[in-house]
C-alpha cells in the first residue's frame, strides 16, 4: 500500500549518523547509492539493527486464517491492524459470510468436501443465532468470542 521512499538511503543515513562526526547534511552527500546495500549488510552482521526501524512498509494481507494472523501478531515484529471479530459481523447477507481456510490435513485425508459442508452449516447456525438472539444490532460478532481455545475444566 505504501512504503518509505529510498529506504536504503534512510537506513544508511541513520547508521552513518551513529559513527560519524559529520552533520546530517554532510552525511547525505557522503552516501553513495551503490554502497548502501553492502553497508546495510555490514549493519546486520554487526547486529546494529535500529537504523532499519526508520523505514516503513505498509501492506495488506488477505486470505490467511485467523490462527495464522494471531501467530504473526503474537511475535510483534511490526505494527498491526486487524479486522475486529468484535465489531465486524460475519452474517451471510451482510458480508457474504465468514471466509475460511481448509486445513492441509483435511485435504490430505480427502475430507475437503465434508469440511466445506460443515463450514457452511456453521455459517447457517451463526446467521440464525445472530438473527434470533438480538445481538445482531448490538454486537454482531460477539458469538465467536465465547468460544474457548481450551475446554473449561472444573477447579
TrEMBL record:
Its lineage reads: Bacteria, Pseudomonadati, Planctomycetota, Candidatus Brocadiia, Candidatus Brocadiales
Q: Which SUPFAM superfamilies match?
A: Thymidylate synthase-complementing protein Thy1
Q: Which Gene3D superfamilies match?
A: 3.30.1360.170
One GO molecular function term of this record is:
thymidylate synthase (FAD) activity
Give the EC number(s) listed in the UniProt record.
2.1.1.148
Q: What class of enzyme is it?
A: transferase
Name the UniProt record assigns to this protein: FAD-dependent thymidylate synthase
Pfam families per record: Thy1 (PF02511)
Originating organism: Candidatus Brocadia fulgida
Mind listing the GO biological process terms from this record? dTMP biosynthetic process
InterPro entries annotated for this entry?
A: Thymidylate_synthase_ThyX, Thymidylate_synthase_ThyX_sf
